[in-house]
Amino acid sequence: METVNCNLCGSTNHRLVYTIPDTRYFGDEWFNVVECMECGLGFVNPRPSFSEMPRYYPATYYDYFEEERHDHPRRYAAESKFIESVASPEHRSLLDIGCANGGFPRTMQRLGWKVEGVEVSSNAKPISDFKVYRQEFKDIPISKPHYDVVTAWAVLEHVHDPMAYFKKASVLLKSGGIFVFLVTNFESISSRYLFLEDVPRHLYFFTEKIVKKYLEVSGFDLIKKDYSDKVFSMRPVNWLRHYLYRYGKKQMLQWKDVRFTRGNIIGGVEVQQPLRERLKFLALNPLFIMDRMLLPIYEKYQMISKKYGIVTYVGKKR
Predict the structure, then answer these.
(1) pTM (predicted TM-score)
(2) Among 78, 199, 218, 277, which is least packed by CB within 10 angstroms?
(3) Of 173, 317, 195, 178, which Cα lies nearest the Cα of 255?
């Protein structure tokens, strides 16, 4: 484990936001999410070092990208549609950071794009139909403008040095090229209060204000932001409980207050509970039923008010 300064402003002044266990693999390991008191960046501190991280990304993590129930073709289609709506039709070279098993670049390839990828994990599946750099993005052996589009779909929250990624994207993009990236929203209640971040795989937590600062420092202008679930969703389950505690009990939710309020989801892992246990849970938790019934309406409100848990940003290189 290592202790770090703020990646954006370098400050050592931060406050604790919440503590959370690893809800995927190591439920007895707890982590602190902190917020920089100078600039507002959120991050895990202390955190696993880069050499320790493969333990938190076992091979089963990458099986997610192949499971039909997660409807990845729909997601890749949504991502490609978004890219084609913001990119110049005359310039069609793309580098995808964190390409995992290669699904999104292949979708763009079928649309006539020249694609390459970056994937640091040795547990991701081998890719032979397009070039993939098997090292950290900031270290790939290109140091001049080469691409029209660089993408990072749900990647920047995972990396140890986001600033290096923003700056490398600026170096690799041609003048007027675009950097498209999707991150979670630290201003949303999903991220800040409902324990829905995938810690410690998620190491950094961004707001629109923070993103603008990263882009400005790296030579980009922010030209578009999309607060929606078109690509990924981050459903604010337990939002009613949050408001009840905050304004009724005058206290904030803790992990122990929400860990058993997600039906058959315990600690981020799907568990096949007996019907009797599910019915007992629902009978004792009418607030949960109301929460889920009103959830679609509240999600729409979040998107309209720009408070949703997922945001896609587009930065244009100056």
Answers:
(1) 0.89
(2) 277
(3) 195
